[in-house]
Structures are given as C-alpha cells and as structure tokens.
Amino acid sequence: QRVRAKNVLCEMGTQLTRLKENLLQTHMWAAKTWVGVRHLRAEEKLHRMNMLAGLTPLQLAAKMGHLDAFKRLLRWHHTKVAWEWGEKRSYVIDLTEIDDPKTNVDVLNICCRIDARTATQQMISSDFMCGFIWELFGQ
C-alpha cells in the first residue's frame, strides 16, 4: 500500500507539474495574444487618426455623421448674406469643402462612399437638405 500511495503521489506530482506547464504556456499565449490585440487596436486607432487627419470641421462632421454639427457649421461658417432688401435676403453658400473637384475628400464624396455611416449617407437624402433649406431660407 505504501508503494501504491507513493506511486499515486508521484503521479499526482507529475500531473501537477504538467498542469503548471500548461498553465504557464496558456498564460504566455494569453499574454502574447493580449499584446497582439493591443497592437492591433493601436494600429486601428492610428489608421482612424490618419483617415481623419487633414479634414476640415465640416468634412469631419459629415464623416462622423453628426447631422446637427454639420448643419450648424454649414449655416454659421459657410453661409453668407449676399444682399438684403428690407426683410428679403439672398444667401451664398461656399461650396469649396462641399464639392471640390481638386480633392477627393469633399463632403459629397464622403457622403457617397460605400463604407460611410448610415447617418452620413442620410445627408444626401432630400429630407435632410429640404429641412436645412427650410431652416435657412423659409424662416
């Protein structure tokens, strides 16, 4: 019985050693995977930052799908009064950031991209623009 107990203890020690090795390997794998995931996340963030770099506030609002910010920027920073006659006004909207043939990052290209957000794609719908035009000219 002593020999048997000794063999059982020896087997348990061997199993415990294997378990420790497996645990260590699993821990090392998890650590490597975590570092890889963190590295991927950092690369994704860097890629996103590079994609957003160089965009104007109007283009950034369009790309992120912030409709209210886009309307506000378009109304207050890109719309100017051309002339006034009593209560009548004529407005001019600067189109350089909206439709620019020189660059490929104008608002129309951003809104029409296949990978654009749903809110961004809604900016080219007639509901959005009619509402904006009514707010701007109908009041």
Automatic annotation (TrEMBL):
InterPro entries: Ankyrin_rpt (IPR002110), Ankyrin_rpt-contain_sf (IPR036770). Keywords: ANK repeat. Gene3D superfamilies: Ankyrin repeat-containing domain. Pfam families: Ank. The keyword NAD does not apply. ANK repeats lie at residues 53-75. This is Uncharacterized protein.
